[in-house]
Amino acid sequence: MRVASSLLSLLLLSAIAAPAQTPSTQPMDPDYAASVKEWTTKPEFLSPLVDHLPASTTVPSPKSVLGYYIGAPKKLTYYADMVKYYRALAAATPRVKVIELGKTEEGRESIMVFVGSEESIAHLDGNKKNLARLADPRGLTPEEAAKIVASTKPIYTLSGGLHSA
């Protein structure tokens, strides 16, 4: 789960930090790159794809919110910390939205995090209604269904869990 939460946090930051910039123009966090190289035990485990973390002046990094880099050895990122980071992203950019789905049996909030363009985030409710219509197409004509498909974006989900605090 640590790897999954690390990857998710890094993917979120990468997707949000500077969507209009290409990888060659996006500034990277050199301290993160050095840390990953230090943490990696053997060169064959160090892909050139794993030591990059976008640096942004507008989107907070996990380290700026939590005080450490996600994935640091012997550092478990608890669910509450992940939620704290996702909420910091949502507060910093209109490209992220956090909604609470309910509470767990232990009283912790269960959330869903949406990441997309500003337009996609602004139209989540309409998109949700359209997807529900397509999920139960009874009463839809083929033409109506085609129109909904043409105007609705798919939503992809990533889910993970770990039985720890």
Key words describing this protein structure:
two-stranded antiparallel ribbon; 2 strands; 7 helices; single chain; 9% strand; 165 residues; 44% helix
Q: How would you portray this structure in words?
A:
It is elongated, with a radius of gyration of 19 Å. The protein is built from seven helices and two strands, in the order H-H-H-H-E-E-H-H-H. The protein is mainly alpha-helical and 165 residues long. It has a two-stranded antiparallel sheet with strand order 1-2. A hairpin with a 5-residue loop joins strand 1 and strand 2. It has one domain (2-151). The model has no long low-confidence stretch (mean pLDDT 84).
At a glance:
44% of the residues lie in helices and 9% in strands. The protein is built from seven helices and two strands, in the order ααααββααα. It has helices at 2-17, 30-39, 62-66, 79-92, 118-122, 124-135, 142-151; strands spanning 96-103, 109-115.
